[in-house]
Amino acid sequence: MAQEICFFKGFTKNQALRAMALLKQESGKEPMLFVPMTEAMLKLNMKEILQRTARGDMPQSPGLSKEPRVVLMGVEDKRRAVNLMGCIKQVVKCPEDTVFAMITPKALEWTLEEYIVHVVKEHEYMKRHNPEEDPDMKKL
User: Fold this and answer.
1) Which runs of E-coded beta strand occur in the chain?
2) Into how many domains does the chain fold?
3) 5-42: pLDDT as tens digits
């Protein structure tokens, strides 16, 4: 991904701005693009959302503010993703309820709505199961 990007849902504008400032302070890098997930994005696939966001032609509408909080990270470096997660966790109450995911090649095929449902289910599963006790997870 050429442009680092963070799509977020369930955050206030102030929380997003604080997380961006923390990320810049901690990493010294220029901040990534922070974009609220909107109703207009829900039926589009992630590839189209990324392309349209990069071109600046995604329709403007209010961000989705309903829980759960979801952060989709378009970053290639896992350390950058971990830094971003830490910054976001500092600006929210109950950070353990925030769902984080990196945008994967498979996710590019899914609509935003499908991706949100998928990562939320995955998050809920992981909250109830210890990956060390799951033989399938040990293979990873």
Assistant:
1) 5-9, 33-36, 70-74, 99-102
2) 1
3) 999 999 988 898 899 889 888 877 766 888 999 999 99
Cβ neighbours around 97 below 10 Å, total? 13
Answer for the pair 82, 9: CB distance below 8 angstroms, yes or no: no
Domain that holds residue 32: 5-139
Nearest to 37 by CA among 20, 58, 15: 58
**CATH number of the domain bearing residue 82:** 3.30.429
Crossing angle of helices 78-89/13-27, nearest 10°?
130
Measured distance CA(125)–CA(129) in Å, rounded: 6
pLDDT digits (tens, 9 = 90+) for 68-115: 999 999 998 899 899 999 999 999 998 999 999 999 999 999 999 999
Using only C-alpha atoms, the chain has a radius of gyration, in whole angstroms, of 15
* Sequence-separated (6 or more) residues with CB below 8 Å from residue 13: 63
Contacts of residue 40, defined as CB under 8 A and 6 or more positions apart, other chains included, come to 58, 59, 61
Q: How many CB atoms lie within 10 A of CB 23?
A: 23
